[in-house]
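Complex record, two chains
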Amino acid sequence: MLVDHAAARQNQQKHTLVALVENKPGVLNRVASLFRRRNFNIDSLAVGTTDDPQISRMTIVVDASKTNAALVERNLYKLVNVIDVQDITNVPTVVREMALIKVRVANTQKRSEIKQIADMFQSKVVDVDKDSLMIEVTGEEDKVNSILEVLDDYGVMEVVRTGRIAMVRGAARSTQERENVIVSSNGHAH
Amino acid sequence: MMLTGAQIIWESLIQQDARLVFGYPGGAILPTYDALYDYQDRIRHVLVRHEENAALAADAYARATGKVGVCMATSGPGATNLVTGLANAMMDSSPIVAITGQVASHLVGTDAFQETDVTGVTLPVTKHNYLVMDINELPQVMAEAFFVAKSGRPGPVLVDICKDVQQKSIEYTPITNVQMRGYRAVKPMHKQDMSSLLQAAANLIDHARRPVILAGQGIKHAEAHGELCEFINKTGIPVTTTLLGIGVLSEDHPLNLRMMGMHGEAFVNTAIANADLLIALGMRFDDRVTGNLSQYAKNAKVIHVDIDAAEINKNVPADVPIVGNVKDVLQALIEMVANSSHKDWMKTINEWREDTKARDVLNQELPDDMLLAPHVIRAIWEATGGECTIATDVGQHQMWETQYFQHTRRNQLLTSGGLGTMGFALPAAIGAKFGRPEDEVWAIAGDGGFQMSIPELATVIQEKLNVKIAIVNNHYLGMVRQWQDLIHNKRYSQTYMWTPDFVKLAEAYGILGLRATNRTDMIHIIDQARAHDGPVLCEFMVEPEMNVFPMVMPGSALSEMARRQPAALGTGMDAVK
């Protein structure tokens, strides 16, 4: 199983949440603290900037066999710096993860075998050394898992994975910023 | 108008009508206290003796008034001392704003003198917190802090302000509109979803034969006391309250079964266990009210109304989950449900209720020198006619208070529920007295909890507060000893407690001290305390080894209660059937 077409139907237990958060100091700390405090089990958390410099986007993968994803969503929503949260597990999405894999190269023959494997996974060799190769692979988690499994025979020296990022297909946005809440000084929202 | 950061803090408080601050000065908050010198005509500052008590007093003030309570402390140890009070407010959804000084912004992160990462430390025990390193943000942050603390599900907000921010000046214009990009007080529900859920709820209510309302503090926050009363008068559905829900419905209302849970009366928990519908209003199914979850109200459908979406399906799955303000929801439901009476159901509940009296220690013939904590609670209730505000500590006396004081006034009991903070009673009575100056205020504490807040006796005197203090002294950490008695084979590990002469202690502070060792004296000193124009400390020497019953043992189903046998005083499991 080198190319995994079943990835779209991957483990139903994994829920993907997308959160838009204010790009302020300490916001990642608030999210991480929430997970610890509520004993939420998180598989991965990827954070990066967006087209709006004041907003960061988090992609959070929840293991729903251990943690109620709806509670994660609602608790995230409660954080004052979280602008929106959506569970996009059940909508069509493009899901990606990137990994860098350093593989031991025992001899010239192994080197070409590894290069072939990388090609089969449509991944790239990004660093070459006399004793190692570094491969950059992008795809759904299953693809990354598969190449790791195959390369394991050669001796994987080091791996780094980004965690899942995801975006809803088509023109729909994954999240929508809520209307700004206007608060008057007497405390009434309107 | 050019103002310093320190002045902006006070101006913001005045603008929010928060003119009372419980606090304690120190290095990093010095500029703000310096500015206070010129605001003393507009701001009342109460100097506490420990910052924890500033937070607890602010919390109680908020509970007593419905307004936001404010406390203030310096950086480092001042701020970390607030943590217990913040956690208390967080667990019990009390709106408080805590203002702390922080080291100057150029020193942040250098382990400067009295520097602590206060926003980091308090992150899990606040609804939100801010570190202000730029004076231009200060007016906005102050306005946001009050709004976040008060709106939606209330909670504590901490604002940590660097010393140089307090010292710098800017042109100040009061904030009248706050824009918050991320914050919504309530997670909005689609109108359509809401109306179909309300319809589903009304259907369940109309068809239930054994419904019970579980009323929590959310009703108090929503000021839905009247709606709750109207709703039950129309439907005839009995109500039981959580600990913090005490005071949302008068306990002399015939449909008020009173408190549920670990130390609720047996018939109340039996009613819940046999219910076919639970209507949970502004409560969160704490483990102390559910007992073993897997056996909780097995045959009941659940309607759960809460303003906090994250409470829905957290502990008990809801058949009808409604996220919203309980006042709005009740108003809608009152229009939708049919008139009903549930006479048969109440008859059944009253049959379960019948043996309660026979098991009540207060119905036993006891010698006069047998003084029990329940006697004290009942005597305070009788002497005051229930017309007072009570602040309790945590433990046995707290549970007896719920059993032996009939709460007929709205929100009259102030107690630490979720966190169970020992030492709450005295600072809470101080906060309550400021909030309700005309009210008779009683602090009821055990000898253990009271020893955690003794320093605040000085605050009582300095602020000339007429609070009455009742110490129920059994020389034990009573509730812990009870668990050791019932669960740990009477191995009383570190629960015996020597106590000082509280009467002499009171006198050292200039407070009238009184002591009773029997029931005749008990009544006498309560009368004396009430007649005295000023603070009084009453020490009641009570039976040392008495247990609170009924009790749902940890891990047991709510319906399986350890109960006191008729005519048993309640020492150990031998008193239990």
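Note: Chain B touches chain A at residues 15-16, 119-120, 123-124, 127-128, 131, 143-144, 146-148, 150-151, 174-185, 187, 308-310, 312-314 (CB under 8 Å).
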